[in-house]
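Interim report, section 4.2 (structural modelling).
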Amino acid sequence: MKIMSCPLNGPRNISEFICGGEVRFEPDAQTCSDAEWAGYVFLRDNPAGLVREWWMHVPTAYWFIAERDTRTDEIIRTYPPHEIFAAPKRSGSAAPGVTV
Amino acid sequence: MVFALLKHGLGFGRFERQLPAARDLKPSYDVVIIGGGGHGVATAYYLARDWGITNVAILEKGYLGGGNTGRNTTIIRSNYLTAEGVCFYDESLRLFRDLAGDLNINLMYAERGHLTLAHTDAAMRTSRWRAEVNKHLGVNSELIGRDEIRKLCPQLNLSEDVRYPILGALYHPPGAIVRHDAVAWGYARGAVERGAELHQLTEVTGILRENGCAIGVETTRGHVRAGKIIQCVAGSSSLLAEMAGFKLPIQTIPLQACVSQPIKPFLDPIIVSGSLHVYISQSARGELVMGASTDPYGVYQNRTTLEFKESLMAHILELFPQLAAVKVLRQWGGMADMTPDFSPIMGETPLGSYYIDAGWGTWGFKATPVCGKRNAEMLASGRVPDLLKPFVLDRFTRFALVGEKGAASVGH
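Predicted structure of the assembly:
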């Protein structure tokens, strides 16, 4: 069984987790175009390599971030979401107005 | 027989190559097809046969039919849920019936009948819904009860003393199995005989663009210009699309399968259970071909896992307890390009002269003939055929999804 390290519960079998998909940043629904919103809802980077995803430890319903390599099936790092979402607002691809 | 063996053994026989030896890439082609799997070679075949377009190159990074064409569980059916899906897959099923003769190759096409088991009231309701949609569109499907299941498949454990008792099934008599490798070989040979070129071990590394149009590809063997390009690359769809400059609503997730050791003929129909995530059929050589749902998370790998086999076997043994002593012989995985609505992505893309055949997730093999035929029509005429229109990439911008709950990987 593959082991994933949960930031709250420590190392656990990967069958205790579910993958919530790539970390994406919601555009401002008031100002973005329909195409931008559709892109946010449906389109994915789906990279062959490093990916940053939401994961949940099911028994404790704890959501966190995991960085994996999709080519090698290695889990590189797991950490609590506030590492990303408390970060200061950046320009470009970063979250517009995301707060915890 | 003995003499024939002796003759060939001593080298007096005349050997016919199925496919010509590799040769140099030409500087340009009318159509470049990226991906030498079933969909790619079928597109080349129908381009040559129906439209006389033979200045075509199929570029394949590995070998012919080495991807999901050779990794699926070879089931052919058209008992889907949406009208768009049923019409599309039914054309494929009809093409499959005459395909062995068209391609002059033994596809070992066998109509076995296809049973989708229902274990819950919700699954019974979906089965009835699917049967009604199917019948309305002329596809032979019926909701049947336990007595009829027992007649069709007496081997099945119909006991009520199990975790998920069988309440009924969606019965689809035209459901068939077909030898998948032969489909790829037959289409490739047919395309190459008519003048198309198949270049194996030729990986596309970039898409050449000019004024919003694709004009050629970079490959590991140099540049090639192209009038039109179509990508048919299954699990690598997002990577190719990135080279072409657009994103897809796809996640690449492994789908695993395995076969048992060969045993005497024992199982005639194809048995599927959406609730238990199981499909099982017996091949002509006696192996039980088994599959389940996709993996719980995405990876670009063909690896297999113990968890997959544990959960699959638990369910298989509930349906067929008599298989407990049978051993697993081979296991493998394929990279499935899963879409949010379990329907494919076909037709035009944001890049001019660049077409797509993707999002085939866990349901691509059965669509090989219809994809080839309609892709060829689209490339030759420049218009998206009506049958493909519901599946264009643009549907996600319009929020006009085609929710296909009849797909194999969907629980009910």
